[in-house]
Amino acid sequence: TQLLEQSPQFLSIQEGENLTVYCNSSSVFSSLQWYRQEPGEGPVLLVTVVTGGEVKKLKRLTFQFGDARKDSSLHITAAQTGDTGLYLCAGARSNYKLTFGKGTLLTVNP
Amino acid sequence: DTAVSQTPKYLVTQMGNDKSIKCEQNLGHDTMYWYKQDSKKFLKIMFSYNNKELIINETVPNRFSPKSPDKAHLNLHINSLELGDSAVYFCASSQEGGTGVETQYFGPGTRLLVL
Could you tell me the residue ranges of all domains in chain A? Predict the structure, then answer.
């Protein structure tokens, strides 16, 4: 059972465009985490959102946690080629388990 | 100053063989994990250890046996390798576990190909 639905699965855009990636679930999580994975490497944490309705900004990246703590979004403003990578959302509960979405493969073209 | 390291990085082997993957973290973390990432990039938890004790065994075939000799190491031994075991295996660690907000630090992955 896929608990976290991530969309879109693939996204190819031009440099300078904006984009949003969505992560949805029918379950409540203690926190929602966003990771970025580059080819040949392990995922690296970008941000953790904990409180319903929380918004966090990391330079051109804006992360939002839904009020009911079941969904999250990642918005990138003015994408750059360096943003290319696999973006993974993951839901955490107090059971040592991170449940990952299937990822969004982002390609930013020059 | 590598935080989470895994060896080997690449592993190519024949079906039926037994192989081990090693993981070490120098972050002083209490909890370590093994994940499997399939060809479609889906990352799934396999095992979790906290202070050398098994916490999570996520319905993994018993051909897979993790071993934690100490808090800094979590190794994965796989018996009778099958074609479907081909994947990238990631080790991770976190300062604590079970809080729901802990940050996990991932190793670089071991690319296993079973022929």
Answer: 4-109
**pLDDT the model gives residue A2:** 52
| DSSP assignment letter at B98 | S
> Pick the residue with more confidence: A20 or A97?
A20
Strand partners, B55: none
CATH number at residue B48: 2.60.40.10
The answer to whether residues A41 and B6 touch, using CB atoms and an 8 Å cutoff, is no
- List the 41-100 stretch of A: residues with Cβ below 8 A of B: 41-45, 48, 50, 86, 88, 92-100
* Residues A98 and A69 sit within 8 Å (Cβ to Cβ): no
Q: Which of B100, B104, B105 sits opposite A93 (nearest CB)?
A: B100
Helix (H) or strand (E) holding B46: strand B43-50
Q: How many domains does chain B have?
A: 1
Across residues B78-103, what is the average pLDDT? Answer: 90
Assigned fold of A4-109:
Immunoglobulin-like (2.60.40)
Identify which of B33, B50, B100 has the shortest CB distance to residue A94.
B100
pLDDT tens per residue, range A43-83: 999 999 999 999 999 999 999 999 998 999 999 999 999 99
pLDDT digits (tens, 9 = 90+) for A82-95: 999 999 999 988 77
The answer to whether A1 contacts chain B (CB < 8 Å) is no
Whether A42 sits inside 8 A of B42 (CB atoms) is no
